[in-house]
Amino acid sequence: MKKTLTILAVIFGIGFIVLAVYYWMTPADMLPVFLPGYDAAKMAPHIKHGIASLVVGLALLIYAWFASAKKVS
Question: What residue ranges do the domains of the chain occupy?
């Protein structure tokens, strides 16, 4: 179970970091409709959404790092 959570944390962590870059590189009117921050009238990228996605991605990778550490007796 612990190994499965660690693998999922790594996958989702990388996914959120990729999503952060996507938020920074794509204007709000070009985002897919299902992503938070889509706005047909706004042409600027969502910097805050990207920062939040980056923080979540890094937190998941840090969790995976600590979860995969060997126990010291």
Answer: 2-67
